[in-house]
Amino acid sequence: MKSSTLSVIMCNYNYGHYIQESLGAILTQSFQPLEVIVVDDGSTDNSVSVVESLMQKYPNLRLLKNERNMGVNYSIDKALENVLGEYVYAASADDKVLPGFFEKSICLLFKYPEAGLCCAENAVLNGEVLINNNHYLGDKEYFFPDELIKVFLHEPFTPIMTGTVVVKTAALFEMGKYRSEFKWSCDTFAHHGIAFRYGICYVPEIFAVMREHPSQYGSSNAKKSEFERPVIKAMIEVLLNEAQYKDVLPRFKKVAPFSVYPWEVLMVVLSSMKYRGFLSFKLVRFALFDKFIRRPLLFLFPVPFCRFIARLARQSRYQILAFFGRFAHV
User: Fold this and answer.
1) 66 and 78 Cβ atoms separated by less than 8 Å
2) Which residue from 212, 210, 175, 170 is spatially nearest to 85, judged by alpha carbons?
3) Non-local CB neighbours of 272 within 8 Å, separated by 6+ positions
4) How far, CA to CA in Å, does 62 sit from each of 19, 43, 68, 117?
């Protein structure tokens, strides 16, 4: 493997209290990227000075500055215009990766060159509580697109965790990069399109810690129907009307992986006859669960407790499936 195969991009706005830890975890990986490009989006805290201090120690760290705050999507596109690596990892300034992440991901991508991306498991840090967010797809290292669809049919939310995705640069550009009209879901759309076109590599280990806090761009907006539904609608419209997505459209229709809130997806799908191709038993099933079980539980109990219960339920389900699966192969 050559270090020139990986570029890391990071967009930052006033995350000076997180960015040193985040960059430190990236810059000390056993597999070193060719470049780590930080785009500062007009921060008013000490973010720039933190990055500039690290640049003195790490020559592969670069800093690009926006003259004023331009927003996350503008900054992402600016970073992508400057990447040189064969693969890209889009890091968050408030999260951190764990040791061995790049090495394991790049090794698998070299082993399975047909794959469009590699993903792993993550953990969520809610306040002081760290919760494993395991989906555990099994021991397979590579999933063909149709195999991946079968996995999606049993999952209420996407098993492709954005903070753990190392993506092939050419495939990302072919998908239209991270399209700004999809806002906080721009990575979700691109990663699923790539996965449905080329398949994915998978590492069944936790390699990223994602922080949950009120100022997050995506999670704070996705929770609001008036913001989330237009984004879902925009993704569906693009899939239906742009020829470059014709090959992945049938797979999007089967699983509709547009949001972590399936109820919002269902409401958009039911809003127009032309969207009914995205309607499925899977969508209805998990949308009803989202609306009438998950949301009331989140209202009544702390988020860490709900995540813990969900993880136990998921593990129990896979244990049951594995038990019966042994008999199926006798």
Assistant:
1) yes
2) 170
3) none
4) 14, 16, 18, 24
Distances (CA, A) of 219 to 38, 213, 224, 269, 329: 22, 9, 9, 21, 42
**Which one-letter DSSP state was computed for residue 122?**
E
Bridge partners, residue 210, by sequence: 124
Burial environment of residue 55 by CB neighbours within 10 A (0 to 12, 13 to 18, 19 or more): middle
Q: Which tokens is 159 given?
A: 């098993």
DSSP element (H, E) containing 33: none
Domains detected in the chain: 3-211 (3.90.550.10), 221-328 (no CATH)
* Pairwise CA distance, residues 278 & 254, whole Å: 6
Tokens of 278: 């995205």
Contact 59, 28 (CB under 8 A): no
pLDDT of residue 318: 45
State yes or no: pLDDT of 271 exceeds 90: yes
Q: Is 83 helix (H, G, I), strand (E, B) or coil?
A: coil
* Residues 132, 209 contacting (CB under 8 angstroms): no
Cα–Cα distance, 12 to 141 (Å, whole number): 32
Amino acid found at 281: F
Q: How far is CA 53 from the centre of its chain?
A: 29
Residue 328: band (very low, low, confident or very high) from pLDDT cuts 50, 70, 90: very low
Residue 217 has pLDDT above 90, yes or no: no
DSSP 258: S
Strand positions, DSSP E, the chain: 6-12, 35-40, 61-65, 87-92, 96-97, 117-126, 129-132, 142-143, 166-168, 200-212
Q: What is the mean pLDDT of residues 156-179?
A: 92
pLDDT tier, 110 (very low <50, low <70, confident <90, very high otherwise): very high
Question: In 3-state terms, what secondary structure has residue 223?
Answer: coil
- Residues making up the chain, counted from first to last: 330
Quote the CA–CA distance of 220 and 224 in Å, as a whole number: 8
Strand partners for 65: 40
Question: pTM for this one?
Answer: 0.89
